[in-house]
Structures are given as C-alpha cells and as structure tokens.
Predict the structure.
Amino acid sequence: MQAPAPYPMLLADIGGTNARFACVQRAAGPITAIQSFAIADFPSPLEAIKHYRQRCFDMRLPGAERAEFRTAAIAVATPVRGDRVELTNGHWSFSTQSLRATLALDHCMVINDFEALALALPYLQASQWQSFPGPQPRSTQETLAVIGPGTGLGVAGLKKIGGGWVALAGEGGHATLSAADEWEAQLIAWVRSRYPHVSAERLLSGAGLPLLHEAVCALSGHSGGAPKTYQAPDILDHLDRDPLCQKTMASFCALLGSFCGNVALMLGARGGVFLAGGILPRIQDFVINSQLQARFTAKGRFEAYLADIPLALITDTYAAFYGLSAALESQLATLNPVFNRKGPMASISRAAVG
C-alpha cells in the first residue's frame, strides 16, 4: 500500500532559548508561516506546537491554511540518542513517540540542531552569510564545518559521501577549552577555580558570556559592583561604550577563533567553516574586525593550510530549516519511493515571519 502524502509538514528548530516553527503545505512548496517563541513560555514542545498551530489559523498566515500536520521534522539542541529527548540548556523534555501519537503524525523525525544546520550548508546562498576577508565559500565537494555560540555551543561537520551529504553530529562544544596566550591562561585558570572542567561552551556561549565577563572584570581589577552581574544581552548592548564588555567580547572572539581552527583541523574542513548561533549575527562588524580570523589560522606549521579555508558567518536566522527539510525528505524517500525529490524546498517565504 502506498504511504500517505506527507503534507502539511511541520518544521521545528528548538534551541535553548527560542523555538522556531514553520510549515510546508505541498510538494516543492516553500517553507512558510515562520514563527518564533520563547522556550520559557511553554512547559513542553507539545504546548508550543499546539500554540503555533492555533496561531496559524488565527492569523491566516500564508501557506498555513491547513495545519493538521501529517509529518514533522524537529531539530533539538541536545544529543539525540533514543526516544527520550532532554534539552541540554533548557527545561523541555519529551518522548518522540508520544509526541507523534498525540499530534496524530504519520511520521516524526528528531535530529540534533547542528546536524540540521550542517545539512543546510550546501543549499545556502551568498545573501545568507557574511564572509571574512580571504577565500570565499564556494560550491565544493570537500568537508564543511559549522560552529555556533547560542545558548550553548554547537558543532557539526558535513561530508560528501557518494551522491549525497552526511552530517557529522557531535558535542564538540564540550571539548576542553585551551589558551593561546597568558591572558587566556589566566581567564581559564580563574574559571577552573569554580568548575573542574572548562569546556569551550563554558565560556563561548550565551550561558557562558556572563562568566567570561565576570572573569575579565576580576582579572582587570573590577571584581565588585554591577558589571559582573551583566547577562549576555547586557554585554552585547553595552559593547559600543563599555570597555569591560569590549574586552570580554574581544576575548570571546579570540578564543572562538582558536576553537574554530581546532575544529577545522580535526575535521579537515577544507570546504569552509561557517559560524552560526544567536550571538554573532548581532555584532557582525565587531566579529569580522576582531582577532577571530587571525586566531583561526594561528596554528604554526598549518597556518597556510587554514588560511586557504573559507570562513563565513551565517546571518540567516532560519537557515536550519533547509537542513531539516532536506533530512525529512531523504528519510521519507526511503519510506515512499514516490516522494523522491532532490534537495530541500526551494525557498523560505518571508511573508509570514513572526
């Protein structure tokens, strides 16, 4: 018996702070009805999805005339190792099978959020990223990498195998953070006095920025008072006028550059390294003009190797939807040979972005 049509499709990109939803109504149709909600406003993804579905009806969003979804692809900011999913940096947890049954879905796929973002890389256009000086991202068959400081720090690779791309999902953000100079050694030692393991995510993330700022304040002789109580948005908002925030973000970018260089070397990401996440797009000019790129290539005998690797910052907040749709279509094609298109939906409609 032929499998039922998979439309409408629900796409969900669930991070530690925000959950973004979209839908696809028909074959070869665009990704539409994009909405973003705060994780803190809902007890679980089920309630958030129900709210999204109702919002589609209430607002009569284009492309969401029918929102009784048949299939779903969900990206989550945590390792996916079975039916039970628990966010690393958020309070949401759920059972994939229970979610599928409650929503009466024919099919529900759950993957890591940076696996989805990695799968999106071959489909992104130049308008969706800002390049650093030097080699520009190009059509390639070589391995790619994506690294993103958001609430946490995501890392994934993408490798061409046969006629398709395979995502290399992992938890690279929890690798040990290393220092490249005496200042960074002091920062890491200060943090290690509180935490036995200083991972990259411990400092290079939205959750880690306040700790990095506190360390910068303490080591700069400003250990008391309001500055060390800044949260990540405060640090970014004060970047143009607060020297301690500037020093914090300069250290952030330098440490991140070294980390990105490590990832590029370990994966052999000759095709390009893409930066993502919610922090960097807010301060694009600061990032491009920081020490990030110089530290990316500062690897001794392999400086020339890294200098030839394109480095770019993804500016499209919804880029992961391309990878989600591609992954869902690939999985559905194995279940229903009739559903066998190449690549993800052609475009994301901006008419219904909330």
Q: What stands out?
A: The first helix runs from residue 45 to 59. The chain is about 35% helix and 20% strand. The two ends are 39 Å apart (CA to CA). The mean pLDDT is 89.
